[in-house]
Amino acid sequence: MFRQDLEATVRSLPTRPGVYVFRDAEGDVLYVGKAVNLRNRVRSYFQSPRNLTGKVLHMVNQVDAIEVITTDNDVEALVLESNLIKRYKPPYNIRLRDDKHYPYLKVTVNEAWPRVIIARSVQNDGARYFGPYTDSGALHETLRVIRKTFPYRICSNYRLQQKGRPCLEYYIGRCLAPCDGRADPGQYAAMIEELCDFLEGRDVSVIRQVEARMHEAAERLDFERAAELRDQLRALRQVQEKQKVISGRLEDQDLVGCAQAGGRACVQVFFVREGKVVGREHFLLDGAGAREPGEILAAFIKQYYADTPFIPREILVSAALPADEEAVIGRWLAERRGPRGVLRGPRRGEKGAPAKHGGGKCSA
User: Fold this and answer.
1) Which of 223, 226, 228, 284 is the most exposed place for a label (fewest CB within 10 A)?
2) DSSP type of residue 153
3) How far is CA 199 from CA 33, 116, 132, 209, in A?
């Protein structure tokens, strides 16, 4: 039976793509959703209550007002839906917990002499961000390795502008001293590019480049420089030895799986770069209830990849996404990553197996 108090409102809704917002009598947002056809989607909540789950029916009975925002297409609707969920945190949506306390590594490539600093959020400032790092130990281990391997500056922009004599970092081989003009701009830029490659998990190419420079230094009889590069190689290989090879192809992939308990969900992501697992992170989601794994993964992908600074060539998920979500999420990821980006569900074989492990050791 149709909710008579909302019948006129639903009948007047547009048939265009967009986002709908359900509010209760207090004006609080209960739920945010997207639709290709707003009128048909919203009507489905109120025409056949017997087809709704207990939680959704409980929500529908609280709806006092409906708002809609039209968009030009379903991809725009997906982006708007994700933004509104983050803004309002509706109790009936699956919500990725606020990860603003998780730090990122920020490489200030928007500066003439880039540096690496810890940032608490991603800004649209031209810098490159890597993370988030939910494990502070992993963050500081990464910083330790890159400080030993890549001699970038750590001084403030104010100190850099003061010029003068180099600081101690230069004399112990941990800075190229751009502060007094000793650093070569081309060499420094190449070093920063290698650093970014390393943070993206492309350690094989970085190791090859460092090894080649070590041999060149030895051939020039610059044994001091060759020894420095040898030490850098050791640090890089120590990191490489901790990484498990799971694919014979040098691919960039994220393997995403989930586990559920007590109305919450935990999503775990394994980061595969050039065929090796280079890290993993877990994320808690509220409002999952008895939702299907595919629904949880769809909600996570929309919220997580809206902010993450890097999207890999492939995203492999441990459960099939809802049919009405998979296509639009795929198009949205392609817009962000490029047309060669691929979103894949579970399947047998080399790629399908790793995605199953995403839910392991993940307590909600």
Assistant:
1) 223
2) B
3) 35, 11, 12, 15
Residue boundaries of the structural domains of the chain? 4-93, 96-199, 202-241, 253-359
Rounded distance between C-alpha atoms, residue 118 and residue 107, angstroms: 9
Q: How far apart are CA 326 and CA 150, in angstroms?
A: 41
Q: What is the DSSP letter of 320?
A: P
pLDDT surpassing 60 at residue 315: yes
Write down the pTM of the prediction: 0.68
Question: Which residues contact residue 349 at a Cβ distance below 8 angstroms, ignoring those fewer than 6 apart?
Answer: none
Query: What is the helix (H) or strand (E) element at residue 107, kind and residue range?
Result: strand 104-107
Among 210, 195, 205, residue whose Cα is nearest residue 151:
195
Band of residue 354 on the pLDDT scale cut at 50, 70, 90: very low
Contacts of 298 (CB under 8 A, 6+ apart): 321, 322, 325, 326, 329
Cβ-contact 317, 343 below 8 angstroms: yes
Averaged pLDDT for residues 182-194: 91
